[in-house]
Amino acid sequence: MDLHILNYRLRVTSINTAGLSRYTHALIKLVFLSNQTRCKFFSLTETPENYTVVLDEEGFKELPESEHLQVESDIWLPLNVLCDRNASSSSDTVGVTKIATSVIIPLAEQHVSVFMLSTYQTDYILVREKDLPVVIHTLEQEFAIYREVGGETFRVYSEDTDVEEDRKEAVKMKVHPVLSPDNRFSVMSLDPATLPTIATILIDVLFYSNCSAEVENYASLGLDYIKFFSFSLIDGYISIVMDTETQRRFPRELLFTSSSGELWRMVRIGGQPLGFDECGIVAQISQRLAEANISAYYISTFSFDHALVPEEDISYVIRMLEKPLTEL
Amino acid sequence: MSGSKPDILWSPHHVDRYVICDSELSLYRIESVGTTLLAINSDTPYMKCVAWYPKPEPECLLAVGQANGRVVLTSLGQSHNSKCKDLMGKEFVPKHARQCNTLAWNPVESNWLAAGLDKHRADFSVLIWDISSKFTLETSVTAEKIRLSAGDTDSNLVVTKPLYELGQNDACLSLCWLPRDQKLLLAGMHRNLAIFDLRNTSQKMFVNTKAIQGVTVDPHFHDRVASFFEGQVAIWDLRKFEKPVLTLTEQPKPLTKVAWCPTRTGLLATLTRDSNVIRLYDMQHTPTPIGDETEPTIIERSVQPCENYLASFAWHPSSQNRMVVVTPNRSMVDFTVFERISFAWSSTTSLMWACGRHLYECTEEAGVSSTEKDISTKMRDRALSRYGHDTEQVWKNHLLAGGDDSQLKSLWYTLHYILYMYVLQKPLGNKHPIVYSGIKNIVKSGSGSTENARCWNGSELKADVIRYHNEERCLALQLCGWIKKGPEIHVEPFLQCLEQEGEWERAAAIALFNLDIRRSIEILHKGATSEKGDLNLSVVAMALSGYTDEKNSLWREMCSTLRLQLKNPYLSVMFAFLTSERGSYDAVLYEGRVAVRDRVAFACMFLSDSQLPRYIDKLTIEMKDAGNLEGILLTGLTKDGVDLMESYVDRTGDVQTASFCMLKGSTGEVVKDPRVQCWIENYRNLLDAWRFWHKRAEFDIHRSKLDPSSKPLAQVFVSCNFCGKSISYSCSAMPHQGRGFSQYGVTGSPTKSKVTSCPGCRKPLPRCALCLMNMGTPISSCPGTAKSDEKVDLSKDKKLAEFNNWFTWCHNCRHGGHAGHMLSWFRDHTECPVSACNCKCMQLDTTGSLTPSDTAQ
């Protein structure tokens, strides 16, 4: 299998809802006028708490400083797994589940904190730049690791062999409470050429969302509702995660999704904001999903982690995640 | 495309039809002039790519890849026949919607259609659809999950199960089937080029690269593939797939299309965004030196079909050099890519040029006399007539040159006089004889001259002219050929000589300039009465006899105006001289049609010490600028002369005359001048190129006589097999080092001691493979010669016999022997005479198969 360290240096930021108006200009530029910025990696996820923006350094320059903008201090590097050397190795499970055992769990064992970002096209595993030597050392047995330098892709090897092996103490897995709202999500894509067509709807959804109607609507049915919307524009590819209520507002023929029209339910991990230092959160979820052979999307945000699982598997997943870790 | 940029797609079976696709599909027919729109199809929105069905039936079936990944079959301008109807509107839908980037029909299994899609985390990006597959409704289990909107498409026509799925979790940007095997598919994936083999889909061959767009196979060379990334094109050889065999120079703007020319081998056309030029790369098939790093030669050029930016282009599938381009606003230009023409002159006068697949030769028609012959023809003819080789009567060389070139005539006479004077002066022991340095230097070196007013000879009229005289002026007159020797000015022999040649006017003029008006009239009279004489000359003689020294006479007035109507320049200057004021002879001196030597001689007689050098300098500059060989009289064989000759060679290309002329210069500096050496070498090369090897050898001999420094040193030595020393070692003390060979070639006298062993170590020299005698043994004394008739042959031609004694050997197998033996052996055999050696020695010698062109001489 190949692992590519992509040539982006990413910042993870959060804009709180109150300060959004200060940032709409920058965000609209990054979303719709990407050819006027040099930003190649941009992801915006709206949660009830805040807006999480992950973007490369070029894009980061567009964001003005203010007390509403929180920035995680480290530089993050995206990793991308290409498991395609053997074309026939297709299993039904996809996404985080597939790379769980090979990447996420070994990294968790090395106390490497990861930030996950799944899109319609692929899954990105973000690691801190300072952890890179450990990451390479840990994963090079399993993967051929490539890194792009000056436009050319080169295979990289662990530089020094004396990376501290003694970090392998037992990982203390903390069980986080999980929350599963009742709204259903789809993961979609869009031809970038048609982005202007849906610009007004997208702006409306992103910046003027007033989900009280949906909340009430769901509440009246005795259901939980959570506002969650994610938009990413990475390497020119658009990926959008939104719930079915929001999806209705878009012209159907423009959005790409699977022909089977599969829908996903969300599991939100964490009662308190998780922070960036705890490791093993993604691992404990994905490991159990992998064992059950359930495919999933996983989107980390500034405060919480979100896993999307097929709607028919949600009850099983909830049950499984609520089990104590000792049963693993 | 995507509604903005039109692309052109040529019909695979109708050379006159193509489709322009942007937001809709338009079918055009191309005619000799202009195009006709045949049909429009706007059924398929969100078009991203189009591919034309490769088989002739159904005729105009197109597959359209859409922005959502669906592939739709459609057609254009078809009467709806049944076969096509089944397929129309058929849709192939991937599991997860994303843009369809590329489509490729399998050229053999024509119902296979490969589609390349964007990346999806859980899906494949290369789908191969079978267009003939039955419309399978999904099974009930999955049907439950299908939430396809009602009425979206006629579900009967939807195919969702591809034949092959390749490239999981990857993006495919370009595709092409490889002609090597119908089941090989080359795909430009997200970060690599991959070759999928459908016989074993679990295996793929791939190479990591960024150049993954627009993969296309060279139609003439199936292992050669082009792909691009941004502004750079990479050329791949599938047999050595690890890295590009070459990359073309990067363009500042990203490329949009790259296409091999279907009618020419190794010609690639590329187009970049926002550009109005198409760049062509001609990859030559020249054999390159062995080694991985060498790149084949590429000739790059560009064509600009129109002023506007181009959206796309397409080669015409059959007519060579034809291309159609389309601009973003859909205007089309049908244009011709002009051939790159390469041409070469041959060493004879033919010109050859190559244009496309044609080779043209243009030769000078033999026997055309109306136009002047090319200088190469002239030089060739002159070389054959031994031009330049007459060292006894140097002036005769101009006759060898054809005798029809006044400049050459003047040159050779000048050289003749110079050499003649040199011989006369030689006893003086002058180290640097002044005769070589030209009249320009001679008159400058002169001391003051004596003036004397002279009277007309044989006339009582008083001449109002002053003649100047000194030793140098006298020498100049000799060089001009007017007099044989000084100090007396005695032109009578020269006049007689001119009379013999029938140069009446010139003789009359010279007689007049020598103030002998009676002799002049006599000459004119002789001229008028001679066999082919001009009767007008007696009229001129009559006019001449009326000469009067009265200043304001009618005679003077008439002569000075009417003389301009005289066609002959000498007659004209005669009257100019008679009517001119004392000391101002411009009408004579600047009469360009009068030979330089006559004007110079005239100047030496009548110009004062201050006027003369000025006039000579002026004339010299004029001659140098014009490259006129008559000027050699003034410059002599000096650096000035080389300058003059340089401008002559620049004007005519006649290195032959230049070489021979400069070799006559006895001063070393002139011959050592790099320009002179360059002419000589070029002339030698020219002789070699004509295969005038004997002429070249003759020239070399001639050259070494005149310029002893040109003798080449021995460059080849034969070393002994045993001690490694040169076998000519022993004679190195001898003066003729370069002739070491002839010592062993046995110079003809059998009494000379034969050297058959190495002078260094006394070991025997190699033996002749035929007679088994040691090297150094003459062939004539060799008893073992096989054929008796050969002996007779050898004795016939003594010169040849000497050559037969030479030793020669093959540079490949190192076997050899006496040249005579070897020649006779290879007359009947192709292989080496040494048994068990099957070296084809004679065939390895490429020049050996050529024959000299000048053997007849």
UniProtKB/TrEMBL annotation, chain A:
Protein name: Cytosolic arginine sensor for mTORC1 subunit 1
InterPro entries, per the entry: ACT-like_dom_sf, CASTOR1_ACT-like, CASTOR1_N, CASTOR_ACT_dom, CASTOR_fam, CASTOR_mTORC1
Domain CASTOR ACT: 93-140, 260-322
Entry keywords, A to Z: Cytoplasm, Phosphoprotein, Ubl conjugation
Organism annotation: Erpetoichthys calabaricus
Pfam families: ACT_7 (PF13840), CASTOR1_ACT-like (PF21389), Castor1_N (PF18700)
Protein family per UniProt: Belongs to the GATS family.
Role summary: Functions as an intracellular arginine sensor within the amino acid-sensing branch of the TORC1 signaling pathway. As a homodimer or a heterodimer with CASTOR2, binds and inhibits the GATOR subcomplex GATOR2 and thereby mTORC1. Binding of arginine to CASTOR1 allosterically disrupts the interaction of CASTOR1-containing dimers with GATOR2 which can in turn activate mTORC1 and the TORC1 signaling pathway.
CASTOR1 N-terminal domain: residues covered: 9-69
One GO cellular component term: cytosol
Protein origin, superkingdom: Eukaryota
Biological processes, Gene Ontology terms: negative regulation of TORC1 signaling
Residue span(s) of domain Cytosolic arginine sensor for mTORC1 subunit 1/2 ACT-like: 176-259
SUPFAM superfamilies: ACT-like
Gene3D superfamilies, per database record: VC0802-like
Subunit architecture: Forms homodimers and heterodimers with CASTOR2. Interacts with the GATOR2 complex which is composed of MIOS, SEC13, SEH1L, WDR24 and WDR59; the interaction is negatively regulated by arginine. Interacts with TM4SF5; the interaction is positively regulated by leucine and is negatively regulated by arginine.
Cellular compartment(s): Cytoplasm, Cytosol
GO MF annotation terms: arginine binding; identical protein binding
Gene designation per UniProt: castor1
From TrEMBL, chain B:
Subcellular location: Lysosome membrane
GO biological process: cellular response to amino acid starvation; positive regulation of TORC1 signaling
MIOS-like alpha-solenoid domain sequence ranges: 379-606
Highest taxon of source: Eukaryota
Any one Pfam family match given in the protein's UniProt record, by short name: zinc_ribbon_16
Protein name: Missing oocyte, meiosis regulator, homolog (Drosophila)
Keywords from the UniProt entry: Lysosome, Membrane, Metal-binding, Repeat, WD repeat, Zinc, Zinc-finger
Family: Belongs to the WD repeat mio family.
Domain (GATOR2 complex protein MIO zinc-ribbon like): residue spans on this chain: 720-842
Main location: membrane
Organism of origin: Erpetoichthys calabaricus
One cellular component term from this protein's GO annotations in UniProt: lysosomal membrane
